Amino acid sequence: MGSHSTVQYNLDEKYEFTTEARKRVLMWLFIGVAMFGLGLAMLIFGGAGHEVAHGSTAGQHGGGHAPTWTARLYAVLWHNALFFTGISLIGTFFVAIQYVAWAGWSVTIKRIPEAFSSFLPFTFVAMLIIFLLGGHDIFHWTHADVVAHDEILQGKSGYLNTPFFLFRMVLFFGLWYFLWSLLRRNSAKEDLEGGLVYYNKSITTSAVFLLVFGVSTSVVAWDWTMSINPHWYSTLFGWYHFASWWVSGLATITLTVLLLKEKGHLPFVTQNHLHDLGKFMFAFSVFWTYLWVSQFLLIYYANIPEEIIYFKERMHLYDGHYRGLFFFNIIINFLFPFLFLMTRDAKRQTILLKIAAIGLLVGHWLDFYLMIMPGVTKGTSGFGFLEFGTLTVFASGFIYVISSQISKLGLLAKNHPMLQESLHHDI
Fold first, then answer.
1. How many angstroms separate the most distant Cα atoms in the chain?
2. Fewer CB within 10 A of the end CB, N or C, for the chain?
3. CA 133, CA 210: separation in Å to the nearest integer?
4. What is the pTM of this model?
5. pLDDT of 274-324, one tens digit each?
6. pLDDT tens track for 145-193
7. Could you tell me if 83 and 373 are in contact, meaning their C-beta atoms sit under 8 angstroms apart?
8. What is the signed CA dihedral for 225, 228, 232, 235, rounded to 10 degrees?
9. Phi-psi region of 102 (alpha: psi -120 to 50; beta: other; left: phi over 0)
10. How crowded is residue 320: how many other Cβ atoms within 10 Å of its Cβ?
């Protein structure tokens, strides 16, 4: 049963990010750096066996030259920085939704997603440096000579130009982090003082955040991902981009909750809360699929050259380099969670939820890989030390930062006005 009394729990329970845990995360960080360095050296000097690729066939599209090794380097870095920016941001999005919906069930897990956006400054610095150093490799519209001979890019140059691009990046990261800081501060003060003052402030801040989020996530989808193929556009792409971030964030929240419970924390999180997290992952995997199918069918059926090229690159060009991954994307991000999480029991079993969360994280990391790599590296991308080393570095950094942030406040928002509803949550 889901009914519990608050006297069973330590309302002041805190997570301790121990020295041993810090060392373990840092060890993985150093392993990631070593893998990245080895992969970079093999990429520069053409090490055999490093990549699963079919060689460059960049000339199949647009008559271009084969991308240099720097294109793959910066694309890999951009891919991971973008992916972890989304997960970090979705933590605050999840919390904000709970506030504006007056939701009570999620209070016992609130402190987990609440910590995610503490990683935003790190991904901001990473994306800024990557763009300043490698923007020419990732984005064609940053080349003045290319724009000068391209009528379409000339028409978009009022929007797609480096100063305005950087302004939007700084503005959105600044707004996200500022609003997250307000929510986090209100949450900390609520623990100390109680009452409804900080809860009401959080609702107002959340409403503002959701407005900013709604505009900014569509714009950054156009900026950071769709403009890699500056001739291509899709009116659904902002939603699609968001959906992939959203499912990735839900999977990360679920996995973090499960791992903390395995360590003996969060005793107030029951099967009923896990069930709801499982329903979120299930439902929004279907939502992602709906957007994927809607975008694919309309573009593929119309067969307009400037639109269909996006799917031709992923299904047919470069000797079919991305074809297997293209169809695997549907399997792991739709068929797997749809069939795996369909039953009630699957959403209430720790091991099954963990498998589902890990599968979705892998799947949507690959989804972003498919969004980015064909437009930057053409047929020269692959999976090797560079890719997995970069992923390990970002994942380790994310774990270290959010673990430190989670340890700063109690694991339970003990003075939240809907705490009792969450403790007695029963479905």
1. 72
2. N
3. 32
4. 0.93
5. 999 999 999 999 999 999 999 999 999 999 888 899 999 999 999 999 999
6. 999 999 999 999 999 999 999 999 999 999 999 999 999 999 999 999 9
7. no
8. 20
9. left
10. 13
